[in-house]
Amino acid sequence: MTDNKKTARPLMIQGTCSNAGKSLLTAGLLRIFTQDGYNCAPFKSQNMALNSYITADGYEMGRAQVMQAEACRKSPDVRMNPILLKPTGDMGSQVILNGEVTGNQTAKEYYKTKNALREPVMEAYRSLAEENDIIVIEGAGSPAEINLADDDIVNMGMAAMADAPVIIAGDIDRGGVFASLAGTMMLLKDEDRSRVKGVIINKFRGDVEILRPGLEMLENIIKVPVLGVVPYMKVDIDDEDSLSSKLKSEKGVDPVDIAVIRLPRISNFTDFDPLERVEGIGVRYVSSVRELGDPDMILIPGTKNTMGDLKWMRENGLEAAVKKYASGGKPVFGICGGYQMLGMTISDPDNVEHGGDMRGMELLPIKTVFREDKVRAAVEGVLDSVTGMFSTLSGLPYRGYEIHMGLSGADGNIINRENIYGTYIHGIFDREETVKAVAEALFRAGGLDPETVSAEDADVYKQKQYDILADELRKALDMDKIYQIMGLKGER
Known about the structure:
It contains 16 helices and 24 strands. It is of the alpha/beta class. The protein has a 6-stranded parallel sheet, sandwiched between helices.
């Protein structure tokens, strides 16, 4: 009997290192393939990140694959990222398999059980492959970590399981790209090296003609073609590898200055991207009282460890500074873990984080109790009645998701007392109406004309950015060769 099941053509993007641009290259190729008429999906067997997302059916996955799903106009699907590791400290992570928490493990414990994860990884991959024409697989870190190669399920091990041709990206911006690409190829096993069909030089600044002699020499050394030199692109997309660069901003921006507390275990700070895109608003991340200054609003983001990060704020003086700031009537807005911190007490009877009880900042009338069951839900509706500076949020539509370990015993999707605001809704600023209402209020408070505020729905904005990304990659890459590598003819 003939098996007539559909099987997608795979392509895998690996990198010489973390932050080589794998996530963006994957997203851009997915957008190109989608524009060319193919049904596509992203896949990453294992992702390690604190920025996560809740799908419409209530499962948790990494944001990089959410971004890539958006690029190919698909709803995020947990099969695109079957394993998510959320670091809880220097040595361990919360392990999430197929969107659900299985527990916390040290790195050593996880690597002992990793082989057992091959089958669920391949079940997710095969299921996606039966529904799509092309799957673009993203690797993690470098495939040349020779100490990890034998049990690998995310780089060459994944390429072997999916029988995928591989393209390796190198980051020229950090220097040493020729050595990085040649060294990576040298360290690969013969069978893995044979899967590599080309390399991409990424994040180039300057005249590509200057590189030509080096490209020819590199091809002679590594015996595969350079498929393109991609310029350093100014696209505003949630690239998991580059999110950390946002956290380095210390400079205030006039006329409206927003300070985000840079918690040690900060998560889901993409919540604030829509505010960053409003002309006249500057968003910076601060980790000390000295950096805080006197902003127009303070935001306290989500965290993987609410109690530990509140203790950090208490010890370095930021809690006292935030409370003093709040007493002056300026707005403080907490999301998820930041919302929990603003409450009266935090209790952890099941030892989900640290155990015991802890006093909160005592700025909102809520009491949080941690339980072992994680709340995971995609949510939408209209915002409850809000008072104070952001009263115009009342009744506005919202769409987002909740992901938290604690319950705070409060009724309502947004809680406020005077100038203090809190919510469990990630993505609360994503809609044009909500970000515009917040921005106009801040402009009014600063004596600026709120009529000058221009905001855009986050989804509309993102789709424009994916098109820009695809346009730039089409110019830079040999797409005919990439289609040939996959055994396809290009535009359908």
